[in-house]
Design goal:
The protein is α/β, with parallel strands linked by helices and 286 residues long. The protein contains 13 helices and nine strands. A seven-stranded parallel sheet has the order 3-2-1-4-5-6-8, sandwiched between helices. It is globular. The mean pLDDT is 97.
Length: 286
Amino acid sequence: MIIVTGATGKLGRRIVERLVHRVPADRVGLSVRDPRKAQDLADRGVRVRQGNFDDPASLAHSFEGAEQLLLVSLDRTGQECVSGHRAAIDAAVQVGVDRILYTSQMGAARDSRFQACRDHARTEDLLRATGLPWTALRNGFYASSALQFLESARHTGDIALPADGPVAWTGHDDLAEATAAILAGEARFEGPTPPLTGPAALDFATVAEIASQTTGRPFTRTVVPDGAFREQVLAHGTPAPIADLMLSIFAAARNGEFTAVDSTLAGLIGREPATFRTQLERAWAD
């Protein structure tokens, strides 16, 4: 059986939807905080059990019978994130999972400027220490993050953000397709995968050009000092830890941590991944 955590989230739901087209539904199990949100999948024959990262016993129960476990990274940071991942990994070892797969990120490293990448690196260390076969899916930076950063610019025409560097923005749909293919046995990786990225690394100056071409409206790129940006987002009610996390993305981008572009994702899904232009067009079509 293939067990997927976080299966009602943005990435996890997409993975499961693609996985059940590749393997029988009764070979798929979900570990979710609220099983009611996965009732439609249960109705299709998928096993759904409650699993809470703060309740190790519930994780062990939801992982029972797993040959493969896909650990979708938690939407937490720092020690809280790594502790949750440790609880899931320990539960997987306890119930005898054969292989653990984990949604990591390109640039995962203990010395990354981006907190999430440091958390991913620590989680990969935990996986390595189990002695089990494991795979870290080094996902490209989610394009949805770039789209969130652009939300204000969509209305003002000015991309006013801190100094950045090229980022290989990558779509959830393509990453979900690749993950489902790996879980279904269409490909196998030991340890970290190559970066699973979109077809190009773009900075926000280039994104401004793409936005102009897509909409037919002029877009400018204004570089905002880090301190001023932090004050702006705090003034809009963003908690200080989140503001600092946002700034760390730009610091890591300036450090060249997200520039890699690799063909592995294209090979897994059998086509070129969606360009950022395509994703912008889809998002702004509403």
